[in-house]
Structure formats: structure tokens, C-alpha cells
Amino acid sequence: MRIAIVDERASRAAVIGEGLAALDDCELFVVSERRGLVARIAEIDPDIVLMDLGNPSRDVLEEYFAVSRALDRPIAMFVDESDDEAIAASIDAGVSSYVVDGLASHRIRPILDLAVRRFNAFARLQSDLAAAQNKLAERESVDRAKRILMDSRGLAEPQAYAELRKAAMNEGKRIAEIAEAVVTAHKLMGGS
Amino acid sequence: MRPDMTIGFLPLVDAALPILALEHGFAAAEGLRISLVKDMSWATVLDRLLYGHTDAAHMVAPLALATTLGRGRKAHPLSVPFVLGLNGNAITMRPWLADRLAPEGALADPMDAGARLKAVVAEGQRLRFGVVHRYSSHNYMLRYWLAACGVRPDADVEIATVAPPFCADALEAGEVDAICVGEPWNSVAVERGAGRIVLATAQIWRRGVEKVLALRESVLESRRPETEALVRALVAAARHFIDPANWDENAAILARQEYVGGDAHLIKRAISDRLLLSMGGEPVPYPDFMFQYREAANFPWVSQAEWLYTQMVRWDLSGFDPDDARKAARVFRPDVYRSALTGSAEPLPGASSKVEGSLAGTTVVGTQQGAMTLESNRFFDGGVFDPANLKGYLSDLP
């Protein structure tokens, strides 16, 4: 089975591909270049095309499939159009799939289910990563705010932190927000 | 709180009305909470609509018909209670081609430019045009113009699909020689020196139907009160859109990243009917480039759906099917538009269908309520579309 993954985000394509690579008798092709997309797909001659829903080239690809219907390998969107649940899961995950007509459903279904799971896994990875980066950035600003208080008011580190926490409680804000404000104010006052 | 209506859209200036209905509180004034979902392809806008991620969508009109008729996919009946605007697209060409077709600093004359294009093609130039979707008014307007000028689409020139955000790139890279696309993408191509605006689609058909508000038929029926409230909110947004006092503010709203994105100055050109045709030039006023509100512009005329159906038959080479013609006509729902606005101060036409292209000048028309005059709705070649004779119209086309 020849599977093409069209994704401009190479990192996501890698996550999807990694999952599909475990399948037997599947050959994977990753297309992340927008230019020459249609020619590349024609060259790959895939049985299945997976593409993320946010890709602006979906209409271009669908046009190509509509035209190639005249050829002997028509491509239908989503394997089983009667299976609304599978389609909904696919849209929730953000992946669209195009499958050559006539491929047996029991061969395709595991691949599409896997693709949906990998898309979801990638989305979770992304949000975990964003959360981790956010946390790191927050810790940095708290450290800098503490340093500012220690330097300007001669406080010890635990006291500096206690001051930030007290301000946060009084203002009903998070410590990170107060720290951010201290750092900004310090910059405005000419600190470095 | 959960929104009453979620509306999908593509980042184009003609997605303005739902955006303004939300931003200016016209929907809230109707007791309707709306939220918007931005996507990057019509395929995804359609998927979300069909599988219930959205309740309504900004959509190229022919796609609503194609989806109902099951062209390219399984059939899903859609309904259109409101037209989001008329025209607003343009044909932008690579400078070398534009220079052969259009006088400097002005839009071309469609008849003259078509004759010149035919000469370019006769020299053996293999030209490629880009349109935003197979089932778009852009595709049908472009093909109408070409065919009327003796240039055969597909045989003499190639027509390919190009995603709107990549139109300027494709022109610049020479992947296409011309594009027919909505704003702001013509202006973006001009700004980058990649192309020159040669024609506005309003020059091809003075009152051509463009994007529509599409819902699944079952959603429209089961949520009739919300649908009618949305129609009223969109009419209020259209009235706001055409007032010059609001242009700067509306351009700034549309330019926000969560909506169309980009430069508010470019967006203002489209909404104020003043286009910069080529880099370094002066903006050229072209009245009714993007047509809203007046003359029942947002009314879903059944005859417009029928015209689109004839073009689908013409270019899909699918053969005329009276049953499909009836289904296509029923996609447009003037009854819902009327029901939403009966008793309001908004004028409503007396008829729901008209002979398209038949008016050369100002004409007073009969109404259900209020007073209404229509201006010229001509096709550039003088063609007249009588919805009573679809087959005859088709057989008379070149």
C-alpha cells in the first residue's frame, strides 16, 4: 500500500509517518513542499493520501482527484461515507483522507484509525510542549523579579518570593503575572 | 455560554458580513450568540458544515449547489437563505500579459481585452489561469468571459485551481499567467509587483452572485428562528458595510489576524470600490466592484441559482437534467429571507426570480414591501438569461 502524507509541518508528518511505519506492506511518502504538489502526488501514485485539514492546498488536491476520476484510479474522499462516526473522529483530529476506490475497507480502516490516533497524539504533544514552554518562561520571570527585589530592596531570596506572593494574593493575580509586571516596570525605570 | 450559531469562513474580504454582525453586535441585538471558525480551504469549510462542527458557512455559491447535487462527493442538501454579496473579485495578470490586454492605469474593456487575449493565444502561447475552486463563481465568470470572446476554456487555455493565499506566489513564480480571485489577494499581488488587475468580475456580469450563507437543509428547517435572526443580523451588517463613514473601522476589524488578516489599507480599497491596479499607480474608482445591500443584493434570487446550474452543466459537461435543475433552484431560499424580514423596514422584491442581464438602466420593480429600483444587471456580451428556458439558454451559449 502506498501512502502519501501531505503536511507542510514536517514535524507532524514525522509523527504520523513514525506511526504508520509500523504497518506491514506500507510504503510512506511525505510531501511537505507546496510547489508541484499535484505533480508529486501523480508521481507517487498513492493508494491513500492523508492531509491535514488546515492545509490551504486541499482544494487543489480535490480538484486534481475530481479530474483524475476520468482515469482508472478514481480517488474517493473518506473510505466509507456512511460511517459518520469515523468521519467525525477524523475531522476532530484534523486529518482528511483520500482513498483509491475499490480498496477493501478492512485494509484501509486500520490505517485511517492509526492516522487519526497519530494526529491526536501530535496535537497532545503540541499542547504539552506549549504548556512546558509557558511554565519555563514563567519560572524565568519569577526568578528575574526575585533578583530585582533582592538587589533593589536588599531582601533575601525567600523574602523576595514572599513579597511577590503577597502582592499576587492582594491583587487576585498569579505570581507569574506579578513577576511579569515587576520585570516590565524595572525595564521602564531604566533597569536592565 | 454556548453559541447559538457557529459560522465557518475563509479569510476573504467578502466574509465581512458575519464578522461585522458579530463585532458590531447586530447578532446580539437579534438575541443570537454567534461564533466564527476560520479555515484555509473550501473543502475544510464544507467538511465542518456537513459533519456539524459549524451550523452555517461562508461559501462559494456553486459549491452549495454542487454539494446538494452530489458532484464530486456524496450528495448533502444545502440551503441558502442569504447571499453574502455580489461580485468583488478581479482578474489579475502577470505584467507582460496585462500590458498586452489593458490600457495603462485603467481597467480593460472586457470585449476588447478578450479579443486581444484571443490574439495572444493565436500566437501559440499556452496560457494558464488560476481560479480558487472548481465550483466557484470565479471559475464561471472567467469561463463565461473567455468563451464569449472566442477563447475556449480547457482547449485554448488551461484553468487550474490555486488556493487564494498562494495566488500572488503562483503569479510571481509563473505557475499561472492570470488569476481570478477575491480580495485582498488581487491587491496583494499588485502590492508585490507580481501582477496587474485587468478586469473586475463586475465588468463581466454587473450583478453576479458571489458568496452565500449555506446551511444544511435539515439545520435550516430545525433551527428556523435562529436562521431568520441571523438573516436579520446580516442585513444590518450589510447596511453598515456600505456606509462610507464606517469604512476605516470595518477595514481595521477585517484586518485583524483572527479574521482576514493583513493590511487594513488593502482591505479598504475593496470595500470602498477603489482599486490600485498596478504598483506605483493611483487607486482607480470602480463603482459597485463589491456590491452589498442595495437593490436586494443579499436576496437569494432563484434565477441566480439556476444560472449557476447552467454553468455547471456547461463546464462539467454533465448534460442537462431537469431533476437536478429543480434541486439546484431549491437551494436558494427566498421564502426564508422574506419570512425573516416581513414587517421590517427593509424592502422586499415582489418576485423571487428575474430575467438576469435584461436591465440596461434604472428600473422600478414591484415589491412585497417598501420601494425598490434596480440598476443595470447586464452581462458584458449582452446575453440574457431567462430562467423559464434553461435548455434554450444553454444551447445558445458559445
Task: Walk me through the structure.
The complex is a heterodimer of chains A (192) and B (398). By secondary structure, chain A is α/β, with parallel strands linked by helices. Chain A has helices at 10-20, 37-44, 58-68, 84-93, 105-153, 157-171, 175-188, and strands at residues 2-6, 27-31, 48-52, 75-77, 95-100. Chain A has a five-stranded mixed beta sheet, with helices on both faces. In chain A, α1 (10-20) links the parallel β1 and β2 (27-31). In chain A, α1 crosses α5 (105-153), α4 (84-93) runs parallel beside α5 (105-153) and α5 crosses α6 (157-171). Chain A starts with a strand and ends with a helix. Chain B is an alpha/beta fold and 398 residues long. Helices cover 39% and strands 17% of the residues of chain B. In chain B, the strands form six sheets. In chain B, strands 2-1-3-11-4 form a five-stranded mixed beta sheet, sandwiched between helices. A five-stranded mixed beta sheet of chain B has the order 8-7-9-6-10, sandwiched between helices. A two-stranded antiparallel sheet of chain B has the order 5-14. The A-B interface holds A 34-35, 53-60, 62-63, 66, 77, 81, 84, 87-88, 91, 96 and B 39-44, 47-48, 51-53, 72-74, 132-134, 160-166, 173, 175.
Low-pLDDT segments, ≥5 res of chain A: none
Helix-and-strand structural type of chain A: alpha/beta
Number of helices of chain B: 17
Count the E strands of chain A: 5
Helix content of chain B: 25-40%
Strand order of the largest sheet of chain A: 2-1-3-5-4
Task: Provide mean pLDDT of chain A, rounded.
Answer: 85
CATH fold group of the largest domain in chain A: D-Maltodextrin-Binding Protein, domain 2
What is the chain-wise order of helices and strands of chain A? EHEHEHEHEHHH
Cα radius of gyration of chain B in angstroms = 20 Å
Question: Architecture of the largest domain in chain A, CATH level 2?
Answer: 3-Layer(aba) Sandwich
**Which segments of chain B are poorly predicted (pLDDT under 50) over 5 or more consecutive residues?**
none
Sheet with the most strands of chain B? 5 strands, mixed
Gross CATH architecture of one domain in chain B: 3-Layer(aba) Sandwich
Span of the ends, CA to CA of chain A: 59 Å
Query: What is the distance, rounded to the nearest whole angstrom, between the alpha carbons of the first and last residues of chain B?
Result: 54 Å
Number of helices of chain A: 7
Q: Per CATH, what is the topology of one domain in chain B?
A: D-Maltodextrin-Binding Protein, domain 2
Mean pLDDT figure of chain B: 96
CATH class categorisation of one domain in chain B: Alpha Beta
The largest inter-chain interface, given as chain pair and residues per side, is: A-B, 20 and 26 residues
